[in-house]
Design brief:
single chain, 453 residues, alpha+beta, Phosphorylase Kinase, domain 1, Transferase(Phosphotransferase), domain 1, two-stranded antiparallel ribbon, 13 helices, 14 strands
C-alpha cells in the first residue's frame, strides 16, 4: 500500500447544528486488540473500518495505513501552500461550516503515481462549528468508499492543529449555486433530472452497502457538479453508520440543516435511511420549483419549501404548473413533471415507512431523465388564404395569413390576442411537441460559463 501525504479540502457545507451546543471532539481510547491485515479486493466489498475503530491520536501515516484500500496521500502543510499559492484569495472557492475552500493544482512531480490535476483544498476552521471529529469521519468514509457519484478524496493534511482535505476539483461547483445564484443560466429540465438521478444513485449506494451508511446532510450545497454536470455527493462529516442487526434506527444528537432534516428525526433523534429519503425529496422539490428549502424572504406560509409544496404536488397539472420554476419558461415535459411531483410527494411523507427506498427512487427517475418533450405553446390552426385566381385556391396554404388566424373552435383572433393567448398558456397546460424550442442542451452547455463554485 502506498502511503501518501494528503491535505484537507472540502466543498461548502453550511451545516446548521440544530443543537446550540458545540460538537465535542471525541477521543477514542486506544484499543489493545490487534487487527490482522487482510488482502482487499475493493474498499467497497471489504469489511469497512468505522469511525469507532480509529484511534484519533494516531499518526498521519498510521491513519492512512489503517484504512483498507484507501490509497490516500498524506500532504504536508507546506506542500498545500505551494499547491494553492499560499491559499491565495484568487483561488478562493467558498466557505461553509467546516471552513474555507481553495482551488489548487498538483503537478505530476509531487508524488509518484499522482497525476497532474486541479484540486479543491478544504481547510478546517479551528474556531468553527466542526472539528477533528468531522474531519476524521470524512477521511474514514471517503477514504474507503469509491463510487462514480461520490466525490473523490485524494488525500489529507494532519499536522499539529492543522486539518485539511484534498478533493478532486468539481468545475461547476455546487447545485445550490447553479440553482439559486443570481444571473446564473437556468438549468434545463433534462439536466435537472440527470442531477437528481445521479445524486439518488450516490445515496442508494451508501444505503445498500453491507455496512450501510446514512448520509444525514443531503442538501443542494453538498451536491457537486463537474464540467459535464455529473453529480457527486460531498462532505461526509455528519455521516453515520446505519443500524446493525435487529436495530431499526441509530440514536444521535440532532444535527443537520434547517429545511432538509426529516420531521421524525428532529423530534426523536432516531436516524434511519428514510431520513435521507426525506432530504432527497426536499432537494428534488428545489429542482422542480427553483425555490430554496428555507426562504425567510417569503411569507410565513411559504418559507418552508417542503411544507408549502407538498399539498400542491398532488394538485394536478394546472396546480403543478403554478409552482414549477418560472426560469424553465415552460420548457419541460408535462408528463415528466407530473411523475416527478408524485415521486417527490412520496419522499416527503411524514410517515417514514411510507417513503420509497433510494433504489426505488433510482428506478423511478431513470425514465424521467429520458423525457425530452419541450412545450412550445398553444396549437393554432391557420385557415388557408383564398385566391380566386389560383387554381389551387381550394387547397390549404402552408403560408400563414399575416392578419387573421383561427383556433380549433373556429373563432378568429387578431395577432395581438393570439400572442396574449400563447403567453397565458405558456405557464398553464400546454400541448407538447417533439420539435426543439427556445434552446437546446448543446447550446446551453456551450454558452454557460464554468463556475468556480
Amino acid at each position: 500500500m502506498k502511503v501518501k501525504k494528503g491535505s484537507k479540502s472540502s466543498w461548502i457545507s453550511n451545516c446548521f447544528k440544530i443543537h446550540d451546543e458545540p460538537v465535542p471532539i471525541m477521543i477514542e481510547p486506544k484499543k489493545e486488540k490487534k487487527v490482522e491485515p487482510e488482502p482487499v479486493k475493493s474498499p467497497n466489498s471489504a469489511k469497512r473500518i468505522s469511525y469507532t475503530d480509529i484511534n484519533s491520536s494516531m499518526l498521519p501515516e498510521e491513519l492512512s495505513a489503517s484504512l483498507p484500500g484507501s490509497n490516500l496521500y498524506v500532504f504536508s502543510l507546506a506542500e498545500l501552500k505551494v499547491i494553492t499559492q499560499t491559499f491565495s484569495s484568487s483561488n478562493f472557492l467558498g466557505e461553509g461550516g467546516f471552513g474555507p475552500v481553495h482551488k489548487g493544482f498538483i503537478d505530476d512531480k509531487l508524488r509518484p503515481g499522482l497525476k497532474a490535476q486541479p484540486v479543491a483544498v478544504k481547510v478546517l476552521n479551528i474556531e468553527g462549528g466542526q472539528g477533528h471529529r468531522e474531519w476524521l469521519t470524512e477521511v474514514v468514509f471517503l477514504g474507503q468508499l469509491r463510487h462514480p457519484h461520490l466525490v473523490k478524496l485524494i488525500g489529507y493534511c494532519y499536522e499539529d492543529e492543522h486539518r485539511l482535505l484534498v478533493y478532486e476539483y468539481m468545475a461547476r461547483g455546487s447545485l445550490e449555486n447553479q440553482l439559486f445564484r443570481r444571473f446564473s443560466v437556468s438549468l434545463p429540465w433534462s439536466t435537472r433530472m440527470k442531477i437528481a438521478l445521479e445524486a439518488a444513485k450516490g445515496l442508494a449506494f451508501l444505503h445498500e452497502l453491507k455496512n450501510p451508511v446514512i448520509y444525514r446532510d443531503f442538501k443542494a450545497s453538498n451536491i457537486l457538479l463537474d464540467s459535464d454536470y455529473t453529480a457527486k455527493l460531498s462532505d461526509f462529516g455528519l455521516a453515520k453508520d446505519g443500524p446493525e442487526g435487529d436495530d431499526t434506527h441509530v440514536s444521535t444528537r440532532v444535527m443537520g440543516t434547517h429545511g432538509y432534516a426529516a420531521p421524525e428525526y428532529l423530534m426523536t433523534g432516531h436516524l434511519t435511511a428514510a431520513s435521507d429519503v426525506y432530504s432527497f425529496g426536499v432537494v428534488f422539490v428545489e429542482l422542480l420549483t427553483g425555490r430554496k428549502s428555507m426562504d425567510k424572504t417569503r411569507s410565513n406560509r411559504e418559507q418552508n419549501l417542503a411544507e408549502w409544496a407538498r399539498p400542491q404536488l398532488k394538485g394536478g397539472p394546472r396546480k403543478l404548473s403554478r409552482i414549477m420554476d418560472p426560469r424553465l419558461e415552460g420548457q419541460y415535459s408535462e408528463t415528466g413533471a407530473e411523475k416527478a411531483a408524485e415521486l417527490a410527494y412520496q419522499c416527503l411523507s411524514h410517515r417514514p415507512k411510507a417513503r420509497p427506498t433510494m433504489s426505488m427512487i433510482v428506478k423511478a427517475l431513470e425514465p424521467l431523465a429520458e423525457y425530452n418533450e419541450m412545450p412550445v405553446g398553444t396549437f393554432v390552426y391557420t385557415a388557408p388564404t383564398e385566391d380566386k385566381k389560383s387554381p389551387t385556391a381550394d387547397k390549404k396554404s402552408p403560408v400563414e395569413s399575416p392578419e387573421k388566424e383561427m383556433d380549433k373552435d373556429g373563432r378568429k383572433h387578431s395577432n395581438e390576442r393570439r400572442r396574449h393567448h400563447r403567453r397565458h398558456h405558456q405557464h398553464d397546460r400546454v400541448h407538447r411537441s417533439k420539435s426543439p424550442a427556445v434552446h437546446s442542451e448543446s447550446d446551453f452547455h456551450r454558452d454557460l460559463m464554468i463556475s468556480a463554485v
